[in-house]
Design goal:
The chain contains six helices and 15 strands. The protein is an alpha/beta fold and 286 residues long. Strand 12 and strand 13 form a beta hairpin. The N and C termini lie far apart (48 Å). The structure holds benzoic acid and fe (iii) ion.
Length: 286
């Protein structure tokens, strides 16, 4: 069969339908159809096609074991968050999921109730307290909350050449009544990395390249769906323009100002601090 503009899509779809795995065949034939539709819709020129190839090549070249520019591209296109939504359709009562982001590290240290994961790092003290429960409100004891965040300047340790050890991250275990207490400092909103091909694209738009202030939490408890989420500070800048589309109303939490004095971990502080209360509600496995 010879090729013309009208039959090329069917020919390519039929070829890719021969993939040995049925799922690969489904993925590849749909990809071919959508790519061809895209090229037809925008009447893609040869120069534009080459510019796209060069952009993809540059994106690959800046990736290494610390940096993943393709994931960042997926994030700013809204694809990462769409995939999260498609795969985490929890009950309305459950805490919603959001993007993992590139700064999670396996193997954060285990921390006791009230442990200060910001020890030695400047910032406004913040206590996060609440319970982990199931959707009926029953406490989940022994659940591990893996928490991590940026510092008061909006930086993760991977972005600071002078910092070579893990910081602002720890794994807290809930008590018998499902309660937890994380002591840290208030995070700050931050810009995504703008010195690569994703930044080059964004600079040509009116897109804000910032994320609102947040603390990441991951809870992977047997019997429940793994929950990857954030808590966002109420009133933070960029809540309605998060560059990676990660914000959800149910994840916005008030960071209440408290005077110097007793703290939620049973201790006390000689300076004012912030206190956020949030109950994580886990979705049971089907
Ligand atoms: C983060 O929240 O850590 C993050 C998520 C997506 C892109 C960049 C950073
Ligand atoms: Fe983050």
């Amino acid at each position: 069969m010879f090729v013309d503009e009208d039959n090329i899509t069917d020919l390519a779809v039929r070829r890719w339908a021969t993939a040995h795995s049925p799922r690969t065949a489904e993925l590849m034939t749909a990809l071919v159809r959508h790519l061809h539709d895209f090229a037809r819709e925008v009447r893609l020129t040869e120069d534009e096609w080459m510019a796209a190839i060069e952009w993809l090549t540059a994106t690959g070249k800046v990736c290494d074991d610390k940096r993943q520019e393709f994931i960042l591209a997926s994030d700013v296109l809204g694809l990462s968050m769409l995939v999260v939504q498609l795969n985490n359709r929890f009950s309305p009562q459950a805490t919603p999921a959001t993007v993992l982001g590139p700064f999670h590290i396996d193997g954060s240290p285990a921390a006791p109730y009230g442990f200060d994961m910001s020890e030695g790092i400047a910032g406004t003290p913040l206590f996060l307290t609440g319970k982990v429960t199931d959707i009926a409100g029953k406490p989940v004891p022994g659940a591990v909350i893996d928490a991590w965040q940026a510092d008061a300047d909006g930086a993760y340790e991977a972005q600071l050449p002078e910092v070579d050890e893990a910081r602002l991250r720890a794994k807290y275990r809930t008590r018998e009544d499902g309660s937890y207490c994380i002591r840290t400092i208030a995070p700050r909103g931050y810009a995504i990395p703008m010195d690569g091909p994703v930044g080059d694209l964004i600079r040509g738009t009116d897109i804000s390249h910032f994320r609102p202030a947040h603390v990441h939490c991951l809870i992977d408890e047997p019997g429940y769906r793994r929950l990857i989420t954030h808590l966002f500070q109420e009133g933070s800048a960029y809540l309605d323009s998060d560059v990676v589309f990660g914000t959800k109303e149910a994840l916005v939490v008030r960071f209440t100002e408290r005077p110097a004095g007793p703290t939620p971990d049973g201790g006390s502080l000689e300076r004012p601090y912030l206190h956020a209360e949030y109950d994580f509600v886990l979705q049971p496995c089907d």
